[in-house]
Amino acid sequence: MGTSVQVKPLCGVYNENPLAYLVSVDGFNFLVDCGWNDHFDASLLEPLSRVAPTVDAVLLSHSDTLHLGALPYAMKKLGLSAPVFATEPVYRLGLLTMYDHYLSRKQVSEFDLFTLDDIDSAFQNITRLTYSQNYHISGKGEGIVIAPHVAGHLLGGTVWKITKDGEDVIYAVDFNHRKERHLNGTVLESFVRPAVLITDAYNALNNQPSRRQRDQEFLDAIMKTLRADGNVLLPVDTAGRVLELILILEQFWEQHKLAYPIFFLTYVSSSTIDYVKSFLEWMSDSIAKSFEHTRDNAFLLRHVKLLINKSDLESVPDGPKVVLASMGSLEAGFSHDIFVEWVSDTKNLILFSERGQFGTLARMLQADPPPKAVKVTMSKRVPLVGEELAAYEEEQNRIKKEEALKASLIKEEESKASLRTELPVNDQMVLDANNTHSSSNAIGQRSEAFRDVLIDGFLPPSTSVAPMFPFYDCSSEWDDFGEVINPDDYVTKDVNIDQMLMPVDGELAGKLDEGSVSLILDTTPSKVVSTELTVQVKCSLIYMDFEGRSDGRSIKSILAHVAPLKLVLVHGSAEATEHLKQHCLQHVCPHVYAPQIEETIDVTSDLCAYKVQLSEKLMSNVLFKKLGEYEIAWVDAEVGKTQNGMLSLLPLSSPAPPHKTVLVGDIKMADFKQFLASKGVQVEFAGGALRCGEYVTLRKVGDASQKGGSAAIQQIILEGPLTEEYYKIREYLYSQFYAP
Amino acid sequence: MASTGQSLTSLKKREATTANNRDGDQLIITPLGAGNEVGRSCVYMSYKGKTVLFDCGIHPAYSGMAALPYFDEIDPSTIDVLLITHFHLDHAASLPYFLEKTTFKGRVFMTHATKAIYKLLLSDYVKVSKVSVEDMLFTEQDINNSMERIEVIDFHQTLEVNGIRFWCYTAGHVLGAAMFMVDIAGVRVLYTGDYSREEDRHLRAAELPQFSPDICIIESTYGVQLHQPRHIREKRFTDAIHSTVSQGGRVLIPAFALGRAQELLLILEEYWSNHRELENVPIYYASPLAKRCMAVYQTYINSMNERIRSQYANSNPFEFKHISPLKSIENFNDVGPSVVMASPGGLQSGLSRQLFDRWCSDKRNACVIPGYVVEGTPAKTIINEPKEVTLTNGLTAPLNMQVHYISFSAHADYAQTSTFLKELMPPNIILVHGEANEMGRLKQKLVSLFADRNTKIITPKNCQSVEMYFTSEKMAKTIGKLAEKVPEVGETVSGLLVKKGFTYQIMAPDDLRVFSQLSTANVTQRITIPYSGAFAVIKHRLKQIYESVESSTDEESGVPTLRVHGQVTVKQESENHISLHWTADPISDMVSDSIVALVLNANREMSKVVVESEPVVSEEEDARKAEKIVHALLVSLFGDVKFGENGKLVISVDGNIAHLDKQSGDVESENEGLKERVRMAFQRIRSAVRPIPLSA
């Protein structure tokens, strides 16, 4: 009867692997999250590869690798081609995260799982939604509505609500109910009684100290090291939790007028902060408020300096400093290099703000006790020389020729197609090309700008369609320069690479800072040279929980409040999953599932339902009673049919059958006490019962302390001798209920 | 689905007449401002007891209370939601007054960008407007207070307040401008505010909502006029300025500080950077307000179009190289040609007026009016190019400067309006925000455009109510145990009807706590009564009254108990007390009350020997009594009730006559409504008069 719902985990159950789950709602397959780990371990994606082509839509919840890392790879290699939905910040920061990953990896290895191009084309498919936007899926999934809601944890983080026929399937992982400096808490608690809730057990066994205490310890640890002339390294993610850390440091530095430099070092740090500055509407109320009142953008950083190149850091004079560098796992990126440099000095501090992914260097160092020495691989990219270079060039030439050929073919086809479609379009279209051809226009401008040619962008010659179809340009340039074999001729390659990057997002590439651009553009043939070495771990290592997830206790109370009809647990160590499962079975709802990988579970609600029309005749005789946000009434009706075959409810022609009385309402003893007091009755609590007046007592048995689905009906006992007071109090008690 | 009746009564009168008529299907829309005029936008809407107010502006041509919309036509305390489309004064400026000086206690929503600019703009308005203190509508403090109460909504975000669902679409026009779609019980109303379907240098075009509304309240500022293509207007604009400054003249652009001004600055900036020869001609924007708002423009790039966002990637497009701010006229070094953009746009007062007064008599100078000018402002006067103008100091001066009117105001023209409406296909269109003439012409054109369709086009004046009727089908979802089997026609469904917002669910009482946050409760009552007589006496008496009295002994204490009516347990607690025990429900309560009365009686009459006399009440007498009661009750309900033929009752209400058969309960009447009511009333009376069935 109800909507059929199946859940099939593809990755990340009973362990802390990345997240990817297949949720089918009436045959429409949602892939919720598409994560990968920092090792980019392709074997993790096997289950995904088996179902990727059948996916109808992808929903992303957070902007970190664990939630969206595999998207480019899956799009390119696994045949995933569905539309993707995410919030604007998840889209933008996710893109930057992937760039950062790629650049970090490329620097130290022959990374070939995906390219910047793949990242761009994967993210191009993303439809951006705002919080609480109801998006109606059309076509196959007709009738399904998806809506992102605030999850906390990361900027733009999403709790997905999938609704069909009034039944809600909620996907909420890594949520945070606490309000933070830059984020509001999740709104998960405002959903009540969804048909299915899919959530994680990641933090089920963790408990956190209070925020204030944690912040204090964090700052103390940093200050202690700095004062002792040591350096502090914070391995962070690219664009997620790091924002909170930056705000904490920024605030503290401002308050105490500190002069120690702070650096935020990722390949995309300055673009990250630039974009974050424009995401104020996604942040916490206090940030929005301060902007409204003083027009002070919280991310206008005064103390934190943004670096995109390690050499910039090296040019800084020696002395104690704080460096936030990606990746958090220490497996790659700047944090890896800095770690190797700083780890053997006892003065230094490496402060982890999140648990490292399983099997990474960060996780190893977080072990208790920390290892005395660790093996690391130092890799470096060196330019090719001699024979290697010659071989490389030959290979490149061959590829270029092939591509040029292909491009010219495509060009021909495209020009034919475009003539057909674009001819009737008037000037207006050209002017507003941004709208429909945003990307291409951006490329046009951008690549032109490279050669110092200014395009007005407003009044292009009416015959020219070039700004809209820049692929001609690039392909023709392929033609022009494809034959050039001189590797010193950088310009050509600049343009090529640049355009590879552009098609998706001209603006973004523009944002990539010169350093990183030079890195992307630097196509000097090179190879990676690796050396393994063992470093002594002498510096101090601290782990503090700045992950911004709800802790075990809060998760439990939130789940009890939400009280789903069916609960699916994913993502979390085996113990945590099992623990939470047992807890929920007892306190939340009787249907708790924790499926294994590729195990399909059916969480179709056994709920029966049918729709009826309420006829005007019936409704005119119904008197509603208001109870909180509900209004209720008892109806006795006869079933009839409307012209179009709908069932409809008509008034009874015979007298209504008697029915058992129900008292509807939730009585809180404390509230009732106040109510009685306001009516002039003397009341007090005595031994768990409420004593009203002199003799009458009111007691609640089988208290609904467990608010979950199995909660019993409230039992209230009213006792007393025959007095007027008794009847008076009974009347007051009745007034608290609705008795149809 | 909708039947439209347009009645042009004042709201107050209507309230008086319909106060008792709880006809929830009536939808009322009343412009409190912007009806057949431009300025003080404010549209009131009410449906099914829910009330929404769109916009809350002032009329720029008036001052003080006269500028307000007609708030006294409504009761502000009944308004649930107030939605502000954008920050312009004629859409938002009476908000502080409405929030702080009236009984309004609902919620206010606007977009993030609107809220940020709203505060700056109104503070500036308070400072600039030169009216006496009594005439001040609100103070700086009121604005700050209002900020606390304004809530933000993001584009497309769906919110629900009190059963009213609403969300907004991009409207073009200015940064943060929104069109609101309101959904009350399935009836959708779209309020466009000011909108533009043309993308410009920094804003997106207005979106086309994916759902067609039942009513579209749309602006008609430009009526049937057509805009020139944008690049032609831009060329005229830059040409006019270029030729003036190259002849050594000064250009005054009176523009409202925010909104279109930013667009013009973008145009000028681009033109200047493309024309090196103009490098020495300074451009000023004389508005500290615009300067303050730059931070807002720099932040909310996500509400702007792709073009600006891609520029933002390289550098901030709102950091101008050729344009500098100008603090006041004292700081203005007026030598040689220059371009000054100054507010206000209507030349009423302030810097733009000062410069106008200074420059108007020199024929080399030019004044470019870049937007819509409101009736009654000096700018409107000079568009007609009079020979002379009156200066602020009261003197008259010849108007020699050239006046150009090039409209950049981002309002929809006829082409945009008609395509927008054609795609949207609303069955009802209400025109607001337009001069009466323009609006009339637009109405004519739209009527002929939609001639083949049954589209209603209405142009209410201020305070004229448009009333429509929507018979919405109420659908309910039966869920849980009650829905285990889909019933056949003719079967009975009984359960709790739970209404939340405008969604209905029917469920069994046991399921209530499963599907809602409500819970059910049982109240067990125990009452002790002093009684020192023999328990058997009670038993005996109870048996006389009740059919079912079972006696047993309590398992724990071994005292004798009686179970009356299967619901109330009477127990002899001690020699001097007996107790009653039952689970509360109306029947049991009644039974217990009668037992209490009986016990008390027994107490009093302890010594009396009870003489049994089987109560003999003839059926006939019973029936006669019942009939009397039925008659009396019907009289109290319907007034005129007479005995008719064959024992039928004749009930006449307002000329409608119904015949009621007392035996069968059949009702005959011409009037369906009356028939139904009499039938229902009789059924209820009968169930009240008849004895209570024991099986319950």
UniProtKB/TrEMBL annotation, chain A:
The gene is LOC113725016. It is found in: Nucleus. CDD domains: CPSF2-like_MBL-fold. SMART domains: Beta-Casp (SM01027), Lactamase_B (SM00849). Pfam families: Beta-Casp (PF10996), CPSF100_C (PF13299), Lactamase_B_6 (PF16661), RMMBL (PF07521). Gene3D superfamilies: Ribonuclease Z/Hydroxyacylglutathione hydrolase-like (3.60.15.10). It comes from the Eukaryota. GO terms for biological process: mRNA 3'-end processing by stem-loop binding and cleavage. Keywords: mRNA processing, Nucleus, RNA-binding. Signal peptide: none annotated. Residues 242-365 form the Beta-Casp domain. PANTHER family: CLEAVAGE AND POLYADENYLATION SPECIFICITY FACTOR SUBUNIT 2. GO terms for cellular component: mRNA cleavage and polyadenylation specificity factor complex. Residues 17-222 form the Metallo-beta-lactamase domain. This is Cleavage and polyadenylation specificity factor subunit 2. Its main location: nucleus. Belongs to the metallo-beta-lactamase superfamily. RNA-metabolizing metallo-beta-lactamase-like family. CPSF2/YSH1 subfamily. GO terms for molecular function: RNA binding.
Automatic annotation (TrEMBL), chain B:
Residues 261-382 form the Beta-Casp domain. Residues 39-256 form the Metallo-beta-lactamase domain. Keywords: Hydrolase, mRNA processing, Nuclease, Nucleus. GO terms for biological process: mRNA 3'-end processing by stem-loop binding and cleavage. It is found in: Nucleus. InterPro entries: Beta_Casp, CPSF73-100_C, MBL, Metallo-B-lactamas, RibonucZ/Hydroxyglut_hydro, RMMBL. The keyword Nucleus applies. GO terms for cellular component: mRNA cleavage and polyadenylation specificity factor complex. One of its GO terms (molecular function) is RNA endonuclease activity. SMART domains: Beta-Casp, CPSF73-100_C, Lactamase_B. Residues 489-692 form the Pre-mRNA 3'-end-processing endonuclease polyadenylation factor C-term domain. Pfam families: Beta-Casp (PF10996), CPSF73-100_C (PF11718), Lactamase_B (PF00753), RMMBL (PF07521). Its main location: nucleus. This is Cleavage and polyadenylation specificity factor subunit 3-I. It comes from Coffea arabica (Arabian coffee).
